[in-house]
Amino acid sequence: MLYDASRAGNAEPCWLDRDWWARRGEVRGSEEGRGAALFIDADGRRLVLRHYRRGGWAARMSTDRYLWREADATRSFVEWHLLYLMRRAGLPVPVPIAACYRRAGRYSYSADLLTEQIIGVRSLAARLAAAPLPLSGWIEIGRCLRRFHDDGVFHADLNAHNILMDQDRRVWLIDFDRGRLRRPGLWCDGNLVRLRRSVEKITAPLPAGHFSDADWAALINAYFAAAQPATASP
Predict the structure, then answer these.
(1) Contact indicator for 148, 173 with CB cutoff of 8 Å
(2) pTM value?
(3) Which one of 66, 69, 87, 121 has the lowest number of neighbouring Cβ atoms within 10 Å?
(4) What are the residue numbers of the active site?
């Protein structure tokens, strides 16, 4: 188990047990999917407990078991450390509370991550399904993504479900499973291409106007305009 003592000084393993929260009657809801999320209200705090699940062909072999190498290489520990570093850098991501892994024999493990919930937000996917997003929203997304890329943050699954926005169109990113720090490069373009595919997939069955080339141009222009100036060599 790994946790931030400044935010969870009395953390116990049960905090990462879904059934324990359910027995206490503090589960507010859940969101199923590849990363099954449990929403918790506890002592005035809103938390999200996510159980790591496999996707794609690997899920046919095991839904939630991963190959064991070492503790620091577990999915939950890697994501917790990345979130911690991003918060220290001032990036808009969830606050990491605790992470754990559970060995399953000699060669596999399962994992969970506990974070603070970001309140008053909806995913970009949900916003687009309800109504077109104003150009100012696309601009804020572009600026936000540039901050992450300039800091070398690689998001392994950048899509419209993992971008959150509030009523003031402030932007957060979530779900950094398999994310890591890298030197900025061509992968940044790959991130943007992946996001556009996700947006197009979501808006394809919707009425015309929910997403356009002008929307994407606003995001891209803001992304490049927000680039950090290069530091001159001494």
Answers:
(1) yes
(2) 0.91
(3) 69
(4) 157
